[in-house]
Structure formats: structure tokens, C-alpha cells
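Priority: low. Protein: Thiamine-phosphate synthase. Input follows.
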Amino acid sequence: MIRYNQPLPSSGRGLFFSGRYLMEIYRIIDVNLNRAREGIRVLEEVARFGLANRKLFEEFKHLRHFIKEIEKSLAGNPLWYRDAQNDPGQELSSEEMARNNLREVVLANAKRAQESLRVLEEFGKLLDAAIVLNAKKARFLLYELEKEVLTLIKPSVDLTLYVLTDDAYLNEEKFWRVVEDCLKNGVTAFQYRAKGKKGAEMYREGLRLKELCAKYGVSFFVNDRLDLGLALNADGVHLGQEDLLLEVARKHFPGKIIGLSATNYEEGVLGIKAGADYLGLGPIFPTSTKEDAAPPCGVEVIQKLKEEFPNSPVIAIGGIDREKVFEVIRAGADGIAVISAVFGAESPARAVYELRETIIRARE
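Result:
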């Protein structure tokens, strides 16, 4: 646990200022003490209820109390100078009116508190060195706590229509045009899968793919290679049954999505219990894309896994085309993963659009 000592005592230097100058300084200090405590209180609630993490909850609680002690240690009382009624900063900005997920709540409130502590440091220089040192200490403690929280909150991803690359298509001249057409027309997640290429080339291709995905707001994954995922700062990695252990990948890739392949019910159960963020289950149907593919497991396995683990995403892969979408989605699959259904189509853009529309209808 982070150690919180009592704040350094005030020297009383601020009492030598008087009039409007002192009033303005203390009003700024009052506002930013409140902003810092409020932001940290939100983070405290995230740790307590959103993450059910007692350790982090206690850390934020102690930090909030530490900031309260900073206020008590001041030579003057900032509350005397408060004038909330005439504060021109009361209006909410459009950015403050909405948050899309828990991660955004954490980022916004951590930033709010950190900025407030920085303001306290600067204006504290006009009053007392103790304010500067205490605010700086609190700010750096908050940086560490923010990092811990964010490692526990994974980014939200949409795996409805998950497209993978394959060596058979990577070298085609039209590859990059096809990729961009797919991203424009409804792909929600994209995985870079290149079994026959070396590291430097994979990095160059992966970087270009990541930039394209970012351009269209599509989650970007790397197949198998944790090192490449780290180098590219991918949204996640997808591991096979014989790849790096999931718990090891989690340790080195915190706060990211880690998917796991499963070819049958037993592997699916083990993967979910090991903490995979989603399963790539298949092949569901016979497929020619993967030469060493396991026997098809059928839609019954999807249904069985979803009945037992309804909150664990299962993405169906293997032999899925437009005609098979209804079958896998109605069985409970959270999305589909495809290669040849898109890259092998006469019009990949149209194939993506039709797959997406079919998924939507199957969910109705």
C-alpha cells in the first residue's frame, strides 16, 4: 500500500498577504482542493463498486483524506473566500455532458484531479512551500493509482464482425484497397494474422493496418505475437492453444483484450475459466482456409458454452458465410470471424455490408 504521511505543516507565510490579492489566491486554492477531492472520490467509487477492488478503494480513500489534511494545514481558511454564486466556470462543457464507458469516467476524473493538484502547486508557491510539496506528492501518487485502475479496465470492443488476414491474401496487389473497403463498410474488429512473414515486415504491415483501423474506429488485434502487439500498441492479441500462456500474456499486456482459440467445448471451458476476454471458437463448419484445422465442432458447442457462460463472448469462426450467419448467431454466438468470406469475395465491401446486415437481422 502507498504510504500517506501527514502533510508538511504550513509556515504561515500566507498570512502576510492581504486584500484582494490574498482573496484571489485562496479562492483558486479552494476551487482546486474541491476539484481534486471530487475527482478522487469518483475514482474511489469506481474502485469500490465498479472493480470491487478493496486495495485500490482504500488507496483512493487515503489519498482523498490526505488532500483534506492539506487544506487543514493551511494558515488561512480558503472557505472564507469562496464565491460559488459568481463563479463563471459553473457551466458544463459539451465534453462533460457524456461518458461512453467506465474507462472514460476514470480518465476524465483522474485528469481533473491531477490538473487541480498542479494548480495547487503553482499557486502554493505564492503562499507556502508546504502546499507545493504536498500537492506534488498527491499528484504523483494519483498518477500511479490511475495506472493501476486502467490496467483493470479493458477497453470496450465490438466483435460483431471480426475480419482476419491470411498469407494467401496478404501479397495480393488489391489487399490494401480491400482492407480499407472493409473498414468503411461495417467491420468492427480486425486481426493481423501473418504466419509466413518475418518480424520487420510484420511490424511495417501491422503499423499500416493499425493506422487504418484507427482511422475508421475499428479495434485492431495481432494474432499470436505478443511482442508485436506490444510494439504496435494493439487493442489486443489473439492466442492459440499452443501459444503463450494466457496469464503470462495478461501480465505483460495489461489493460488489453486477450482472445483465445478453442476448437471444442472442453478447450472453451478451460479458456473462459483461465480468463480469456473472448473465445474464437471453431472451426464451426468445414473450412479450407486453415490446412491444419481441427474437425468442425458445430453450432451445438456455441449453444452449450453460452448456456453455461452467458457473459463470456464467443466468436464463431470457420466456414462461415452469409448463409451460415443465422445459424451461428441464433445459437448464441456474439459475433463471427471471417477470412475468405471477405477477401475471397468478388466484392469484399459488399460482402462485409451483407454479413453485417445479416447479423443484425439474426439478432432480431
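The CA atoms of residues 41 and 64 lie 7 Å apart. The chain has a mean pLDDT of 88.
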